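pinned: reference chain
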Amino acid sequence: MDLEQLVARWGLLALLIGAGVEGETVVVLGGISVSRELLAPVPAVLAAATGSFIADQLFFAIGRRSRSAGIVVRAQRRAAFARILRTLERRPVAFIFAFRFLWGLRTISPIAIGTSAVPTRLFVMVNAAAALCWATLFVTLGAVFGEALGSAIGEFAPLEHSFAIGIAAILAIAATYWVVRRRRLRGRD
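pinned: its structure tokens
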């Protein structure tokens, strides 16, 4: 099975999972797949939005129901947690809509919101709308970037090279995140 068949068969599922676990990088790669006509635009946006929505709902539920869980306790120790709650008190709908666009707040925000008095129904509705806007933006950026990349390098670079570069970028970002996180955690011990 070649790469195009793999993307056609598993691309939407990979996009759904990747949007929830990693975020923008995977969704931009999904947009590049759209520009290469390996994925259709609307299903790509819906898969990315669904993955993001599910991940945020999961973190919200953890904050709401498991306040003594390790992930919640560690989140509460971060300085950003208190800032999130203050901002949430002033502008709950705007913050719920915007947090996924703010670097570094993607995971901690739904946990903090879960510990707050924000009604679950409000979070679900705003989170769904925000996930759809976010997915549309990043799939579109990937599609535009994919078209521009295709125009810039022509047909000289096979599809496998583009995906290899994308996967390498994801791995580099994940490794950097892991190293920085480990250093921060060691500094707190």
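why pinned: The chain has one domain: 3-154. The chain has a mean pLDDT of 81.
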